[in-house]
Amino acid sequence: MTIIDSHAHIDEIEDLSGSLMRAHEAGVSDIVAMSVDLGSMSRLLKLAGQYRQPKIHPALGVHPGKVQPDTLQTACDFMRSNIKQACAIGETGLDYWYKWVRKDETERQKQKDSFRFHLGLAREFDLPIVIHSRGAWRDCLKLSLEYGVTRALFHWYSGPVEILDKILEAGFYVSTSPSVAYSPESQKAMSHAPIGRILVETDSPVNYKDGETVFAAEPKDVIRTLKALALLKNLDAQKTLAAVNANARTFFRI
Fold this sequence. Notes:
The protein is α/β, with parallel strands linked by helices. 46% of the residues lie in helices and 19% in strands. The chain is built from 10 helices and 10 strands. Strand 5, helix 6 and strand 6 form a beta-alpha-beta unit. The longest helix is centred in the middle third of the chain and has 21 residues, at 105-125. The radius of gyration is 17 Å and the shape is globular.
């Protein structure tokens, strides 16, 4: 049975051809490729046409850490012009852990303005939205509910369980990464979330721990996420795989 990496930044992977070949050999059938700014959106659309195995599904969006008010309109225009090629809106959201955002309401407002645009686009075109919510879980949920989006994924969720309950009550999904093998916050959240609402990802090329060593993730490492999640939830690996694949295909309609 094949597996889907629901969140990777493939345009940031140095040896992309080799990485995709290894992913295909490992059984990765699909990769949802996240963009972070105008440049990465353009690159991803080209890569989606260049590679066939695994199949690349571009998501278009501006990461909260990349929001620049003077270029946001250009990015927004690009998203609208290429919306038919997008499987999702993202990566978008809010991040209050950045030092320049933590104590600056103006910076938080910039992120919120960008996030609101993405939410409106997702609702207008009936597309799923992939939300980065680090340190801003409550505000991300509040805005998502205000905009009435129906398909939201809180990617790599490691926030409070009480907010997770409200995310689940809204019918939304969460995902986890290889960090679920060792992060107490990730483990607590994923232990609480039902398997029917969880997707697996790598967020490649983010660095993770494997014992005492650190490795840069690539899409094949979604199998690490799967195995760690199955172990955490004391579930059969094949049943876990079937569930997370079904969740990804339902959410992204791929």
